[in-house]
Design brief:
The complex is a heterodimer of chains A (338) and B (126). With 338 residues, chain A is mainly α. Chain A has helices at residues 15-30, 43-62, 64-68, 77-102, 108-116, 134-151, 160-188, 192-211, 223-228, 236-254, 279-286, 293-306, 308-337; strands at 4-5, 264-266, 271-273. Chain B has 1 helix and 4 strands. Chain B has one helix at 63-74; strands spanning 38-45, 52-60, 82-87, 92-93. A 3-stranded antiparallel sheet of chain B has the order 2-1-3, with helices on one face. Chain B is elongated, with a radius of gyration of 21 Å. The chains are: A mainly alpha (338), B mainly beta (126).
Chain lengths: 338, 126
């Protein structure tokens, strides 16, 4: 057997190799083991994962914006430092996920281009505006809370690099949720106006956070296949119901309320239920017609353009150093020869 | 660059992004930017006395930047005391298609494990 480079050129495709590959793939999925980048995988599996992982990466990158807006207006130096750490984490999460997506054969530049060109999707949640300081609390508590609920099962996703990225992300994400909870708790225990501001933020972020889990199960055509492939472990509605149950408990500690009088525990199904959600709004946002879609993309584009000189300078510096190094080495070779 | 050397000294670097080529289903069209930063694999030693373990990958124009980026990306919470970065295309890997034959040698060689020897059961310190 020849040693292989990690980036080896694809082996020639034959029907025989495909059949053997499919059998191997099926066995690994049946054993609930993990698929690794150089394993054979069905084209649809690769495509589904690439879509999911790259959208997830884009969400982290765009997700930096609502909070970055508040760094300069954070109420104390401590809160400013915390918010900066959190936004830096989001950037890190995006990079972990881009790395995972790259192992599926897509270049990072292509993914970046797709995002900037408006061709790629990201989570609907980041197209809502962050209007007050309390929104930093509600985003941490509800949005990151929903993200954790969604992401913990993804740590066991059948695609190795995705699962590993999620493990890393989940470890960091719990700080995000706790700091959000703390912001809300402090506001809730503050002046009546502060408490009102916290309640208002919870009111605005509650429904969008519930919609982060995706459309209802009977309207989520890809879910079934993703579950069969062990990418998804629980359905959208199942995760949403669990999340509602957790929030019901936690909102009491905050001394606030959820803006939903239909939340109840169904004794028959043993599941938490919630009021209706505006799925038309969800679809509108995904179609690019949300409150902040244009603004978010514009900001991302500007940031990319503003950073161009840094990328160019770093590449030029690296080229120069490489040239120097090569000149030095060829000198040495000549000396040896002489 | 020697992974044991000074991390601040740049040396060779990867120049091409071309990662983990798919074995089967054709991957999406590759998009090569000539100025694109190379791909590096990152290994982190979490504390003294332990091995470096693969943490993930990143893009950087050279080794020095790869190390700085790796520090910012993979050790934001004291996860490491030492980092290696390796150009991804410098890593050779075993063939996943060898269907186990590459690793067949230890099969049926239980006698390489201490648990194979049962007659000494109950004997102390053995």
């Amino acid at each position: 057997m020849a040693a292989q480079n990690l980036q080896s050129v694809p082996a020639e495709l034959t029907q025989e190799a495909d059949a053997a590959g499919q059998a191997h793939f099926d066995r690994i999925i049946a054993e609930d083991s993990r698929i690794e980048p150089r394993d054979w995988m069905p084209a649809a599996y690769r495509k589904t994962l690439l879509r999911q992982v790259s959208q997830h990466a884009h969400s982290e990158i765009i997700g930096m914006q609502p909070e970055a807006n508040w760094i300069s207006r954070a109420p104390s130096l401590k809160r400013k430092a915390i918010l900066m750490a959190k936004v830096q984490d989001e950037a890190g999460h995006g990079l972990y996920l881009y790395s995972a997506a790259e192992t599926l054969g897509q270049s990072r530049d292509k993914m970046m281009d797709d995002l900037i060109a408006g061709k790629a999707r990201y989570s609907s949640i980041f197209n809502y505006p962050a209007l007050t300081w309390a929104d930093m609390g509600a985003i941490g508590w509800l949005v990151d809370g929903a993200a954790i609920c969604n992401q913990v099962p993804l740590c066991r996703a059948s695609y190795g690099p995705y699962g590993r990225a999620m493990v890393r992300i989940c470890k960091e994400e719990s700080f995000h949720q706790r700091q959000g909870f703390e912001i809300l708790l402090e506001l809730s225990n503050g002046t009546p106006a502060q408490k009102q501001m916290a309640q208002d933020a919870v009111n605005r972020w509650y429904a969008p956070a519930l919609m982060m889990f995706g459309p209802p199960d009977d309207d989520s055509p890809n879910s079934k296949q993703s579950m069969a492939w062990n990418i998804k472990r629980f359905s959208n509605d199942e995760l949403r119901s669990r999340f509602v149950g957790m929030m019901v408990e936690q909102v009491r500690v905050l001394g606030l309320t959820l803006p939903d009088d239909q939340v109840r525990f169904n004794e028959d199904t043993k599941k938490w239920e919630h009021g209706p959600l505006d799925w038309h709004e969800f679809q509108e946002i995904l179609a690019g017609r949300g409150p902040c879609n244009a603004q978010r993309l514009e900001r991302r584009r500007a940031a990319h353009d503003d950073g161009a000189w840094v990328r160019e300078a770093a590449a030029a510096y690296a080229d120069k150093q490489r040239a120097k190094q090569q000149a030095k080495e060829s000198m040495k070779t000549k000396e040896h020869a002489a | 660059m020697s992974p044991h050397g000074n991390p601040e000294t740049p040396a060779s670097s990867a120049t091409e992004i071309n990662r983990e080529a798919p074995k089967a289903s054709p991957a999406p069209q590759e998009h090569h930017d000539r100025g694109a930063w190379g791909l590096w694999e990152v290994f982190v030693r979490s504390s003294r006395g332990l091995s470096h373990v693969h943490a993930g990958s990143l893009h950087a124009p050279d080794a020095a930047m790869a190390l700085r980026n790796a520090r910012d990306l993979y050790t934001r919470r004291n996860e490491g005391v030492s980092i290696w970065v390796v150009p991804a295309d410098a890593i050779a890997a075993s063939d996943p298609d060898s269907k186990g034959s590459f690793f067949e040698s230890p099969q049926g060689k239980d006698y390489r494990h201490a648990t194979y020897y049962t007659k000494s059961e109950g004997v102390k310190h053995l």
